[in-house]
Amino acid sequence: MLQELGVVREQIDTIDAQMLALLNERAKCAQHVGEIKAKYGEAGHVYRPEREAQVLRRIQDLNAGPLPNESVTFFFREVMSACLSLENPLGVAFLGPLGTFSESAAVKHFGHAARLAPQSTIDDVFREVESGHAQYGVAPVENSTEGAVGRTLDLLLGSSLQICGEVVLRIHQHLMTRESELGHIRKVYSHAQSLAQCHEWLNRSLPGVPRISVGSNAEAARLASLEPGTAAIAGEAASERYGLPRLVESIEDEPNNTTRFLVLGRHDAGRTGSDKTSLIMSASNRPGAVHELLAPLADAGVSMNRLESRPARAALWEYVFYVDIEGHRDDPAVKTALDALASRAAYLKILGSYPQAVY
């Protein structure tokens, strides 16, 4: 057995050396790309979301296994992140503190080499990018269980930032504590949304135990790490950051609980062939106006993924509509639909075109 293992381990060592050499060759190519961009005055555009999405989709198409697509996607994201950091690490603002699902979304999209900047509020995430203190921001926009994140939608209405990407994160809520049994828990900390997502499990498993809402799941984990007899509901990142063991994993009531995050920047993305376009529009206050507003999408054969209404801040009982459609605004069909919308809508704002999330 030892002899057979020795042969295989030698093969692994040889492959590792080859991989290391190839990774450094790739890094040199990335540096050359940066030099070419600097030569033509585009040094500030080191990150191109459409190019990254194309690379990841190509890798998934080439993947013959046994590694699953999720694993190879994670690996190549980290490779691209490390290569970008050779030029200038990207500054990424997100809703903090460290250990939140927003941090996990930022890392999933930009890799561990990005310079992460946790913010206290979603407003601060927008401000960091608008001021140039961070190149990009990551903000939650909707959860499959709890619905839209209203503050993000409201800020998109008045901000000059554009959407240049999206991250879809599977949300696993864990009960973490230093206690060894559920019966020892006297108090549960978590963010209000996470408490709502685990409501039925808490009713069954910890009936009568007080649930205390705090500002973030990371703060819940911090408190539970300090107080005997307490537990927190949070994600894996918070567990690792505060060294808090997970007593029960995946306690969310909905097995497909997912949160979608937007990547915000001062530009949108180029076409990839698998894109979305997001926009805000309002209709005139008259019968049939909303139907007329949506008709250009159907006429042009453009699919709508999402329609969300929000009260307009300008007048009472007036609404704006947040719409996601399939395709890039430079696609002929989408361009035709948007041109028609511009002539019909009382208000129209294109939030950006960007690659659909790569899982």
Automatic annotation (TrEMBL):
Concerning PROSITE patterns, the annotation shows: ACT, CHORISMATE_MUT_2, PREPHENATE_DEHYDR_1, PREPHENATE_DEHYDR_3
* Domain (Chorismate mutase): residue spans on this chain: 1-91
Sorted keywords for this record are: Amino-acid biosynthesis, Aromatic amino acid biosynthesis, Cytoplasm, Isomerase, Lyase, Multifunctional enzyme, Phenylalanine biosynthesis
* Cell location: Cytoplasm
Q: Which reaction does it catalyse?
A: prephenate + H(+) = 3-phenylpyruvate + CO2 + H2O; chorismate = prephenate
Q: Where is this site: Essential for prephenate dehydratase activity?
A: 259
Q: Per the annotation, which location comes first and is thus the protein's main one?
A: cytoplasm
Question: Which GO MF terms does the UniProt record name?
Answer: chorismate mutase activity; prephenate dehydratase activity
GO annotation (BP), single: chorismate metabolic process
Q: What is its EC number?
A: 4.2.1.51, 5.4.99.5
Classification via SMART domains: CM_2
- Provide GO CC annotations from the record: cytoplasm
Superkingdom field: Bacteria
Organism annotation:
Zoogloea oleivorans
All copies of the Prephenate dehydratase domain together span 91-266
Q: Endoplasmic reticulum: present as a keyword of the record?
A: no
For this protein, the parts annotated as crossing the membrane are none
- SUPFAM superfamilies, sorted: ACT-like (SSF55021), Chorismate mutase II (SSF48600), Periplasmic binding protein-like II (SSF53850)
Q: Locate the ACT domain: which residues?
A: 278-355
**CDD domains hit by this protein:** ACT_CM-PDT, PBP2_PDT_1
Pathway involvement of the protein, from the record: Metabolic intermediate biosynthesis; prephenate biosynthesis; prephenate from chorismate: step 1/1; Amino-acid biosynthesis; L-phenylalanine biosynthesis; phenylpyruvate from prephenate: step 1/1
According to its UniProt entry, what is the function of this protein?
A: Catalyzes the Claisen rearrangement of chorismate to prephenate and the decarboxylation/dehydration of prephenate to phenylpyruvate.
**Which InterPro entries does the record match to this protein?**
ACT-like_dom_sf (IPR045865), ACT_dom (IPR002912), Chor_mutase/pphenate_deHydtase (IPR008242), Chorismate_II_sf (IPR036263), CM_dom_sf (IPR036979), CM_II_prokaryot (IPR002701), G/b/e-P-prot_chorismate_mutase (IPR010957), Preph_deHydtase (IPR001086)
Q: Please give the name of this protein.
A: Bifunctional chorismate mutase/prephenate dehydratase
* Record keyword DNA repair present: no
